[in-house]
Amino acid sequence: MSTPFDMPPETIVTELTLAVGQLLRRLRAETNPDGLTWSQTTALARTRRAGCQ
Q1: Which residue has the higher pLDDT, 52 or 25?
Q2: How many Cα neighbours within 13 Å face the side chain of 32?
Q3: Structure letter (DSSP) for residue 7
Q4: Are 9 and 17 in contact (CB under 8 A)?
Q5: Calculated CA dihedral for residues 12, 18, 24, 28, nearest 10 degrees
């Protein structure tokens, strides 16, 4: 595996984007102990931080 210093920036961006996408898909697939979906959990966290809009 090459280091980031050996790779063009475009390749680094592409690989990082793919890795983040895979991570998000995996997180969404994991069972949440609260029984909430990823979107519901995110909405509650934002409400907790910013208050009701």
Answers
A1: 25
A2: 12
A3: S
A4: no
A5: -170
